[in-house]
Amino acid sequence: MRPRIFLMFALSLPLAACVSRDQADARLARGCTAAAELFLPEGITLKTIKKRTFGPSDQDPSLRNVTLTAVETDGWSDEEKEYRCTFAESFGFSGSYTAAIEQLRIGDNIYGKEKGKILGSFDDHLKLTEAVQKAINAPGP
């Protein structure tokens, strides 16, 4: 009887650890927010995120886009801006989930990678990937 209980427990473990599409999108939104905050000019902060949209990338359907419509503020005036992050993600058989930022677009500015090439400085790319990974892997909703 015990082996059966152990087998049932072992088979149910991956299901309990699975990450849903909504949970993955919440992680990606946290990562995109961290990416956006990283490149804000000094004295500017994100006041609110008004809208989050998710979907496959136009350039590569295996990648996932997250678009944030946010309100930036300098304490005196507010401005609405759009941030678009593109992520490579993987759902593992055992319920694991990983994601890595490919690119961040803020208006005409692009950070990250395009067609495998790093855009901008290596230091900016390193800061971007570290901030996003920290946000994606942080516990939260």
> What best-fitting shape do the alpha-carbon axes yield?
globular
Specify the biggest β-sheet: 6 strands, antiparallel
SS-based class: alpha+beta
Low-confidence stretches: 1-16
The SSE string, one letter per element, is HHEEEEEEH
Count of beta strands: 6
Terminal CA distance: 38 Å
Rg, nearest Å? 18 Å
- Helix content, binned percent: 25-40%
> What integer is the average pLDDT?
86
Spatial sequence of strands, sheet with the most strands:
1-2-3-4-5-6
Beta-strand content estimate: 35-45%
Number of helices: 3
Architecture overview:
The structure is a single chain. The chain is built from 3 helices and 6 strands. With 141 residues, it is of the alpha+beta class. The longest helix is centred in the first third of the chain and has 18 residues, at 21-38. The protein has a 6-stranded antiparallel sheet with strand order 1-2-3-4-5-6, with helices on one face. Strand 4 and strand 5 (109-114) form a beta hairpin. The chain starts with a helix and ends with a helix.
